[in-house]
Design a protein that fits this description.
single chain; 301 residues; mainly alpha; Serine Threonine Protein Phosphatase 5, Tetratricopeptide repeat; 13 helices; elongated
């Protein structure tokens, strides 16, 4: 569970249902804040926001106005309005740095949770989550970087570390998908670059064996035999019981039979740089320095 339950505010009992907000506002900030808590506990999110917003606007200098801001952020989160909730939590942490839920990192942590919850999930008839836009996960990682920069060592840090591991894992799954995409389209060099970068960026995810195996297969595919041999050797040594570790030993035997035993100091020749594609000839021979202007014709003369 992503939320830290011991940090959530308790609401008084005796919840009301369906009040007439136009006639039922309290006379003081405290009265309206309690009404907001009542509706929040009753899961009447919109009514809770209405009461809390009334406190925030009508009693801006009351201590309940600050609590109302936090309650609004929580209600937006509960409704699934994760973009709005993220902004609200970030603003709360910035505007009220001495509040207990800002000092202990909870508001900053909840901003990251909001981004994470806004990320795509696996759904029937839709592409896998790893194949879709990962912007919310990158935003969650940005929020977590802010969290660890300012709130490391607080009581919420264990939750933030677990969330960061979840984000890293999902982003790595996306990187593996992209690498396979490049391989399927005969672009192994692009796949290698993606895999090497992913291995360095997300070393704590538990997918190192998957990365090394796909990297070794790709290196072998483009003729980098000694590099692939080293990759498979590393994989077999580090993950001897993993199924990719067992596959690595088979690949090492294949390389030995096909290319001979390893020779100390032997390296693969450097990969040839990709051949640049010549630009197209200008469509307008009279103005070769502005090929894009061919369609403009007389408008640019």
């Amino acid at each position: 569970m992503l939320l830290a339950p011991f940090l959530l505010l308790a609401a008084p009992a005796g919840c009301k249902t369906g009040p007439d907000l136009s006639a039922d506002y309290g006379q003081t900030a405290r009265e309206n804040y309690i009404l907001a808590l009542d509706e929040f506990a009753d899961k009447d999110w919109e009514e809770a926001i209405a009461y809390a917003d009334f406190v925030r606007i009508r009693f801006p200098f009351s201590r309940y106005a600050v609590e109302a801001e936090l309650l609004i952020a929580r209600a937006e989160f509960e409704q699934g309005n994760y973009v709005t909730a993220r902004d609200a939590f970030k603003q709360f942490a910035r505007l009220h740095p001495t509040h207990r839920h800002a000092r202990n990192g909870w508001a900053a942590y909840m901003a990251a949770v909001s981004s994470y919850m806004n990320a795509p999930t696996n759904m029937f008839l839709l592409p896998k989550a790893s194949e879709r836009d990962q912007t919310p996960l990158h935003e969650a990682l940005e929020d977590l970087e802010n969290y660890f920069a300012h709130y490391a060592g607080t009581i919420t840090e264990p939750y933030a570390r677990k969330l960061r591991a979840k984000v890293h894992r999902r982003l790595l799954e996306h990187e593996l998908y992209v690498a396979r995409y490049y391989l399927d389209r005969d672009k192994p060099r692009a796949a290698i670059g993606r895999l090497e970068a992913a291995g360095k960026r997300y070393p704590d995810v538990g997918k190192t064996a998957d990365i090394l195996f796909l990297l070794g297969v790709t290196q072998l595919r483009i003729g980098q035999v000694e590099t692939a041999r080293a990759t498979f050797s590393d994989l077999a040594a580090r993950f001897p019981k993993h199924h990719h570790g067992k596959q690595a030993r088979l690949y090492l035997e294949y390389i030995r039979k096909t290319h001979g035993s390893a020779t100390p100091g032997k390296k693969d020749p450097p990969l040839e740089p990709p051949v640049p594609v010549s630009p197209p000839l200008p469509k307008n021979p009279d103005r070769p320095y502005r090929p894009a202007a061919a369609s403009a014709g007389a408008n640019t003369r």
